[in-house]
TrEMBL record:
Swiss-Prot/TrEMBL keywords: Cytoplasm, Nucleus, tRNA processing
Composition skew (Basic and acidic residues), residue ranges: 107-118
Species in which this protein is naturally found: Quercus suber
Pathway of action: tRNA modification; 5-methoxycarbonylmethyl-2-thiouridine-tRNA biosynthesis
Primary localization class, coarse: cytoplasm
InterPro entries per record: Elongator_complex_protein_4, P-loop_NTPase
PANTHER family: ELONGATOR COMPLEX PROTEIN 4, PAX6 NEIGHBOR PROTEIN PAXNEB
Name of the protein this chain belongs to: Elongator complex protein 4
Amino acid sequence: MATSKPRTSSFSRNLATVPSSTPGLKYGPNGTIFISSGIPDLDKILGGGFPLGSLVMVMEDAEAPHHMLLLRNFMSQGLVHKQPLLYASPSKDPKGFLGTLPTPGSSKDDKSRDRDPENENGLRIAWQYKKYFGDNQHHFDSNRDVKHEYCHDFDLRKPLEKHFISGQHIDCVSILDSPNLAALRDCCATFLAQFSRNDSSISSAGRIAIQSFCAPQCKYSNMEWDMLSFIRSLRSMVRSSNAVAVVTFPPSLLSPSFSRRWQHMADTLLSVRAILDEDKEMAKLLTGYQDMVGLLNVHKVAHINTQVPVILDATTFSIKLQKRRFLVLESLNQAPIDCSSGTSYGTSASCSGSSKTGTLDF
């Protein structure tokens, strides 16, 4: 008698399996698989990182190139995990930009973790049970290391090592002299074809980084309908693949109606703003204003495989450089009532923590 197959519901989701040893990938709620943005604090804000199959758009600031900080960390994180990368830029030599990517470094938290005597000498208290672990303890340590390698702290002062850049999995495209977007669309389609969701397992994920998409030096910069059509097709191609696309654009160069259309097409929408050096009113309002280099606004968070939107405790975060090297995002805290330079009633905490004072969203 033939054995009957287990009956599955028509509403069951066919999930691809991710090997536990695959770096740079992790599971989230509702079967979502994330890749890291390259910024640990941003991953915490977004609930794990960028979901596979999502389009991330970053609105640039005309006063300062803070969007390049996000783009560099995103690209470096993928190269460290040996994930294929497609980079498109309006510059003549996009490969030269790879030399400005930061390298993984050791922040203050990493050093304190590495110096932990329990991590160095294993189990100290129950030392007599150590012999019973054997290979299982080694397997646990390897899994713990993989978890820590999901997102790195990148040192903005040191360039990425050459062996990460010299691989064959990097494609650089210049969109400066392109009369239309057909060539860029074909490059994206060819790149995303190797990350089809039809595969039963995910061994790697792809990353697409497009810098200053509607830059005025591009010949197609006045073709707003063509650019909107490209973004729509890019989102469709990315949604059916195991990849993430990050597109930065200056909204001031678009008409208000098209700018709103572009923002609507994004799964995750971010914006960056520069901070004026002599804004005394803002310095009185916020704690630690002197250490800020910019502001990050989270306008939309991707919610794939669910209809429940993500509600954040705060949508505006300060961009700081820890030790002038590591990119840090922190929630905004209100300064004391007397406008003194002391600490506020709610101490400055990380974006994942909560403060006693209310956050200020701009």
